[in-house]
Amino acid sequence: MLKKDYLPLYFLSALGAGGLVVSFFMYLTFLVPHSGVPMATFDFVYPALLKGDWLSYVIAIALVFIIAFAILHYKLLLWNINQYKQFKQTQEYRTMVSGNGEVMLMILPLTFAMTINVSFVIGAVFVPGLWDIVEYLFPFALLGFATVGYFSIKIFMEYFSRLLTKGDFDFTKNNNLSQMMSIFAFVMVGVGFAAPGAMSHNLVVNAIGIFGAIFFSSIAILLLVIKLILGFKNMFEHGISKEASPSLWILIPILTLLGITFVRITLGLHHHFDQDLAKSSLFTLTSSVLALQLIFGMLGYKVMKEMNYFEEYTVGDKKSTVSFSLICPGVAFMVFGMFFLNLGLAANGIVDKYSIAYFVLMAPLIYIQYKTVAVYLRLKKKFEL
């Protein structure tokens, strides 16, 4: 049975759960030693779990949350697919795809790209010896992201070509940054391609991954410039829509994915293209991305606070599926914060790994993750998912 207020934005609930899986995987990636392998796998995680030291407790907690949110991700993904099939038969769907709201369809490939990432995390953490055959899996990962990328382009081209041929874009309803959902989808595909591009030892796989990452990131950056200018122009003219005000934070996950993509491209070029890796460049790159995230994070928080968004839509009784978009920025800031801390600071010797300063700098990231989980569970309960 179709949920009364269903919109494709409900896919954000599955997307948020998938993002939280990745956020807890960050503890394993950066805290569990995995010499010679670019990511923490079962063969490193399981022995560390059995040691019985402080790291064992961190690993145990991370694994519990990875399992819980992975199950939730798959459950909500299947529910959304079923609901979306029913929704396509309604008049509401036909109205949506004839206006600005058609861009919401981009959340489908965005969520499916996240599903590939979640599956990769689950496989890496819980399947013994997976890394021994990973080179055979990378082509399938490239194929998966290519498929998602194809549908991303297809959906976007249908939407964008309609706007260009009919000129029926409603600027009065564009007083937010929700149109950047398409950019979010493209950068998610780009960062997916970048993983084999960074980690594969096969030159062809490496090159295809890097090309795919550059291809989709280039599309995203071009659209980012266009839609950022249009979005702020309309917000300055009409003020931001309260219900859509969380869209101010959409730049945080976009910046995280672009930042990770560029990090992976840098590592991939170092592995196969005789490009020397300058650790200082990782510091400047992660610092630049973090600075932009902080600016938009503070701006979005101040705007939503002044409009009483949190009191009404997260704590209060008002319901809006857009509220689920609050999860992605929290996840993204925590994830990229871990990249900044480890690749920007620790790798350059600015702070020592596992030192007091290291964990002090990690504390705000842990707090943001805690708040994100709390908001997610509150929204899940409110929407009875």
Question: How would you portray this structure in words?
Answer:
This protein is mainly alpha-helical and 385 residues long. It has helices at 11-31, 42-49, 54-87, 91-96, 107-126, 134-166, 181-199, 203-238, 251-272, 279-306, 309-314, 327-345, 356-382. The radius of gyration is 20 Å and the shape is globular.
Number of domain units: 1
CATH level 1 name: Mainly Alpha
Number of helices: 13
Please provide the ordered H/E string of secondary-structure elements: HHHHHHHHHHHHH
Number of strands: 0
The CATH homology group name: Voltage-dependent anion channel
Major sheet details = none
Determine the CATH topology.
Answer: Glycosyltransferase
Question: Quick recap of the structure?
Answer:
The chain has 13 helices and no strands. It is mainly α and 385 residues long. It has one domain (8-382): Glycosyltransferase.
Secondary-structure map:
Elements: H1 11-31, H2 42-49, H3 54-87, H4 91-96, H5 107-126, H6 134-166, H7 181-199, H8 203-238, H9 251-272, H10 279-306, H11 309-314, H12 327-345, H13 356-382
